[in-house]
Design a protein that fits this description.
Helix content is 29%, strand content 23%. With 423 residues, the chain is an alpha/beta fold. The structure holds pyridoxal-5'-phosphate (PLP).
């Protein structure tokens, strides 16, 4: 590792060891200040527009994080019953909740309607389903799937034509007409066409797609669109050489696109909503794990006390997560390791052929950029237990925001009586 191949951390080895002494390893640690700053910059960048962020709960479903998000003036985007319950428990209600679900169970719609959430409808058949389960609201968002490939400057960035989400062009028009007849007064449009986008062009292009649809809807059904929901998809620099998104450039390009199209097409300027997850918490969460084994066969292996059940992205997507060996930040990367967890799955590797300093048993490693879709995707395969989460507060103190699972938690679902299912 050369000096420019480093990624900074918001804590040091000494601090990590002190936390480990209290709660063991592995654990997640989040940076309150980093999250608050990210939200602050986002809001500042979009200040010229009527903008609101609904943090995607699935990225980091912890009530302490959601409370922090709320204190910083954001809403939440939920997609399931328990996410709605967590949002409710944190005091979110009404227009502060977006409900962007798909394959939605009846009880989820019922709770979403009870809380007054903005329903982001995934399919035309959900109109009747929602009507029966909670009822049709006055304000609704429609999820659009333009099909085909999603291209930016000729390059393919996503394949909506293969994605299960949203409605076709014709279905959106039909849904508008039906919903208007059923009393909907305020409409929004949503689409999510690409994920983890670095570069500054994605939202501009998405805005164009949604505004073209807005124009067609107005022409054909005389329905005004009051807001566009750009959802998530803004990426973060996982690799040291990645350049971060310039959110000010993104906002300026969205603003310009809206002003130009609205002027040409004589449209009312829509409000802009977002459901960013990764961008808000991704860089501000780190998984800390201890080296418990070293193994040398055809490759050099480092064995951690964390595994893919704690952070699934490398195993599932082959994602890069930067690794810092705590206390060895300035040592040369003279070794090449596979950094592994203990699942009986060969894809349980946090890093493959990674250049790192010589690692010893007992070292602590920090796995970077795990603050979104990290803990959240945890699972219990091989009977592995999910770890604790810790928040570094702005005042420098550390707070336990979720304890680690124990074997008792793992066995908790066997606590029932009356096992016999009488048919
Ligand atoms: C996952 C998801 C998001 C958040 O995506 P990020 O890539 O984390 O920004 C937002 N909206 C919907 C509907 C999602 O499914």
């Amino acid at each position: 590792m050369t000096a420019d191949n480093k990624k900074p951390l918001f804590f040091d080895k000494n601090t990590a060891e002190k936390i480990a002494e209290k709660i063991g390893t592995p654990f997640y640690v989040y940076d309150e200040k980093g999250i608050a700053n990210a939200i602050g910059e986002l809001k500042k960048a979009f200040a010229a527009l009527n903008f609101k962020e609904y943090f995607a709960v699935k990225a980091c479903p912890n009530p302490y994080i959601l409370t922090l998000i709320k204190q910083n003036g954001c809403g939440v985007d939920c997609s399931s019953l328990t996410e709605l319950m967590m949002a409710e428990a944190c005091g979110f209600k009404g227009d502060d909740i977006m409900f962007s679900s798909n394959v939605t169970p009846a009880e989820d719609f019922v709770l979403a309607r009870k809380l007054g959430a903005i329903i982001n409808l995934d399919d035309i058949t959900h109109i009747g389903f929602l009507e029966k389960n909670g009822g049709i609201p006055e304000k609704i968002c429609l999820r659009y799937n333009p099909g085909g490939d999603f291209k930016i400057s000729g390059a393919i960035m996503g394949a909506p034509g293969e994605a299960k989400y949203g409605m076709t062009f014709d279905q959106i028009l039909e849904a508008c007409a039906i919903l208007k007849a059923k009393g909907v007064k305020t409409f929004g449009l949503h689409s999510f066409l690409a994920s983890n986008m670095l570069g500054n062009k994605y939202w501009e292009k998405l805005t164009e797609v949604l505004l073209e649809l807005t124009v067609e809807i107005k022409k054909r059904t005389q329905t005004e669109i009051s807001f566009i929901n750009l959802s998530g998809g803004i990426g973060i620099p996982y690799k040291p050489e990645d350049r971060p998104v310039d959110i000010y450039k993104v906002a300026a390009s969205v603003d310009k696109k809206i002003r130009t199209v609205c002027e040409t097409e004589n449209l009312r300027t829509p409000e802009v909503k977002a459901e960013l997850g990764r961008y808000i918490t991704g860089p501000y969460g780190v998984l800390v794990s201890r080296v418990i084994h070293k193994k040398d066969i055809y490759r050099h292996y480092i064995g951690l006390d964390a595994c893919a059940a704690n952070l699934m992205r490398p195993a599932m997507y082959g994602s890069y997560h930067h690794i810092t060996v705590l206390g060895k930040e300035n040592e040369p990367s003279e070794m090449v390791y596979d950094v592994t967890g203990g699942l009986c799955e060969n894809n349980d590797k946090f890093a493959v052929n990674r250049e790192l300093p010589e690692i010893d048993i007992g070292d602590l490693v920090a796995i970077h950029d795990a603050g979104a879709h990290g803990y959240a995707m945890g699972y219990n395969y091989n009977g592995k237990l999910r770890c604790a989460e810790v928040l570094l507060k702005e005042d420098g103190s550390f707070k336990l925001i979720r304890r680690a699972e124990t074997p008792a938690d793992y066995f908790a679902t066997f606590d029932f009586e009356g096992a016999e299912i009488k048919l």
